[in-house]
Amino acid sequence: MDPPVERTKGNQISARQGTPTDSQRSATALKAENIVIEYKCARDGLGDKELRKQIADDFLLYGKHVDCKKLVVFVYDSNQHVPNPEGFENDLTVKVEGLDSVHIIIRR
Predict the structure, then answer these.
(1) Parallel, antiparallel, or unpaired for β 13-16 and 26-30?
(2) Smallest Cα–Cα separation from 37: which of 5, 9, 1?
(3) Which of 44, 69, 96, 108 has the fewest CB atoms within 10 Å around its CB?
């Protein structure tokens, strides 16, 4: 079954389903704008350290992706598994080879 995807005026939007090894991860690609939005949910076993590793892996993946020039990573952290969200965002909002911009956003 395909994940639900909405279409807007002329935009090509696609969603990526997680695989068995990363089933908690998903992304939306706004192809016309060359933007990928990666969604993550902090939880027990996926705190600050593990999220940093996943996001570093995303930098490698999307830095080489032809349809991605801007990467936005949205992290939902309702149980405060990331102790310093502002520092986390600042540390990981960096210049990445192959990407014009990277934005990390944590919301609780």
Answers:
(1) antiparallel
(2) 5
(3) 44
Q: What is the pLDDT of residues 5-40, one digit of tens each?
A: 444 445 555 555 444 344 455 899 999 999 999 999
Residues in the chain: 108
Q: pTM of the predicted model, to two decimals? A: 0.78
Tokens read off for 33: 């704008």
| CA distances in angstroms from 43 to 9, 16, 24, 87, 107, listed in the order given | 35, 21, 10, 18, 13
Q: How far apart are CA 36 and CA 102, in angstroms?
A: 10
Residue 26 has a pLDDT of 83
Quickly count helices (H) and strands (E) in the chain. 2, 5
Please give the span between the terminal C-alpha atoms of the chain, in angstroms, as a whole number: 30
**What is the rounded distance in angstroms from the CA atom of residue 78 to the CA atom of residue 61?**
27
CB within 8 Å of 107: residues ≥ 6 apart: 74, 75, 76, 77
